[in-house]
Every structure is written in C-alpha cells, then in structure tokens.
Amino acid sequence: MQARAIVLHEPGRIALNTLALDAPGPADAVIAVRWSGISTGTERLLWSGRMPSFPGMGYPLVPGYESVGTVVAAGADSGVSPGQTVFVPGARCFGPVRGLFGGAASHLVSAGARLVPLDPALGERGILMALAATARHALGSVASGPSLIVGHGVLGRLLARLTVAAGGTPVVWETDALRAQGGEGYAVLHPEADPRRDYATITDASGDAGLLDTLIGHLAPGGEIVLAGFYEAPLAFTFPPAFLREARIRVAAQWKPEDLATVVTLVASGCLSLDGLVTHRQPAANAAQAYRTAFGEPACLKMILDWSAA
C-alpha cells in the first residue's frame, strides 16, 4: 500500500511525496484521511528547525497529529469497522521515514485502539480534538478564583471555552488586535490594559519563554502558572517575586486518553463548541503554501489540508 504524505525533508523544505505504508496487522485499521490540521506549535518548530531535542526527532519526517478520516479496512482485533469516521492522533506507518507525528497523509495505518470514533457531522472540525484534549489536560479542574489565559489562538480559545463551560469566567490576554476578536463569554485584553494582580491560575498558551516574570507579577499568593505551550528556549524567572507569592509552576504535557474522551463527550453534548476555529483550508497539493500561511498570518487560527483530491 502507498500513501501521499507531507514530508519535511529538512527545515523549510516540505514536499508531497508517495510513501509505502507498513502492512496492517489484525489489531490495525487503514484510514483514508479527509482532513489534517497544521499545528502552529510543534510543527512550526519542526519546520523552522528550532525544535528542541525530542524523542523521535530527525529528518525526513511526516508531521501531523490532527487527522480525521474514514476506516477503509479493519483487522479482526482492531475494534473499529469500515465506514466509521475516526480521529487519528498521528501514526508511525511509513517505514524508514519518521512519523513525527505522522498524521499528514492521504492514508494511514494505525492501531485501532488509538482511533476515536466521531460523529460524521463534525466534518473538518474533528481535527480539533487533539487541541481540545490538550486544553482539557492543561486545565485539570477549574480552580476557584480568577483565572487568566495567555494567548487567543486556537488553544487559548479552547482553554477559555472549557473554563466557561465549567462555570468559570476567564480573562484572556492577546497583543494582536486581530486575534483579540472573537471572545465568547469572556474578556480579551491587551496585557497592558489589565491591572489585576490576583489571578489564582494563569495558563500560558503563547509558548513565549520570556513571559514568566510578567505572569508571576499578576499572580495571587499561592497561585499557579500552567505552562501549556511548547517552548523552544530555556525558561527562567526572577526568584524574589516568585518566592514572595509562593508561586507554583506546572508543566502540562501531552493529553491523556481520558482527556480526549471527555472532550468528545463535551462536544457531542453541545457543552463545547468547535465552531469558528478552522479559518483556512488548502488542498494537500498546496501544502508548502499552506504551511507558510499557517505560520505567517495572524488571521490564520487553524489551517487544514484537504486530502480528498490527493
């Protein structure tokens, strides 16, 4: 079997190549991908060559962990059936070409246990499940007291929507006037316009390694800063302000299966909306242009690749 796949041969050089797929086993399924998303966090770092050392790193590689497609073949022990719409959180099925994270391809082979059945009515919005699960994992349980979210991209918006759904009233910081638009049930402020210094929780979705001192200055005594971005530079902070506040700093790593299950339920029940987050679309054949747009245009919240013609 073969697939058309996005291959990052080296930083800045992306091509749509034909790759051989690993043969599926009895616990695997073959998925025809319809849409895949471009991550402006990890994929931007891979594309630019600034990705810190990470398990599985190396070029060439197939990126992507936000794919939605249809099961076209299913092993007897896969737990899924042909015709099902599923979310695929990446795959490693391209032989010598690394799958980091391996979801940006026309067809994928994946263990059935990794696939998440979705309502077909979700359509392209289904690719947002990974970011929604990431947001859910970062939040944990919504703490009492005022909360701040830094960054009004897709992850920041999902953090805010989940906080509102849980009964919270977050404030979001955003420095770009265009991205500051679109708050639903919460305030979006420029950091300089926010005098508050008593946030119980501050969740950073910006990936800016230089923000810690600023965030600590807005934290309540005993408050927590959650690092929900992916940081290319070392993080540091001035100790005395953090000491005086007894600040806590928590790193939110990759989402867990229970986070994904929770957001699937929230979306299905209508408690979490994924509307308005996919803003740009390109055929997979235009991948090089799509990546430049995703990483270079503030108006682009989420770019997806359409594999229907690949």
From TrEMBL:
<keyword id="KW-0560">Oxidoreductase</keyword>
<dbReference type="InterPro" id="IPR013154">
    <property type="entry name" value="ADH-like_N"/>
</dbReference>
<feature type="domain" description="Alcohol dehydrogenase-like N-terminal">
    <location>
        <begin position="25"/>
        <end position="116"/>
    </location>
</feature>
<comment type="similarity">
    <text>Belongs to the zinc-containing alcohol dehydrogenase family.</text>
</comment>
<keyword id="KW-0479">Metal-binding</keyword>
<dbReference type="InterPro" id="IPR011032">
    <property type="entry name" value="GroES-like_sf"/>
</dbReference>
<dbReference type="GO" id="GO:0046872">
    <property type="term" value="F:metal ion binding"/>
</dbReference>
<keyword id="KW-0862">Zinc</keyword>
<dbReference type="Pfam" id="PF08240">
    <property type="entry name" value="ADH_N"/>
</dbReference>
<dbReference type="InterPro" id="IPR005903">
    <property type="entry name" value="BchC"/>
</dbReference>
<dbReference type="InterPro" id="IPR036291">
    <property type="entry name" value="NAD(P)-bd_dom_sf"/>
</dbReference>
<protein>
    <submittedName>
        <fullName>3-hydroxyethyl bacteriochlorophyllide a dehydrogenase</fullName>
    </submittedName>
</protein>
<dbReference type="GO" id="GO:0036354">
    <property type="term" value="F:bacteriochlorophyllide-a dehydrogenase activity"/>
</dbReference>
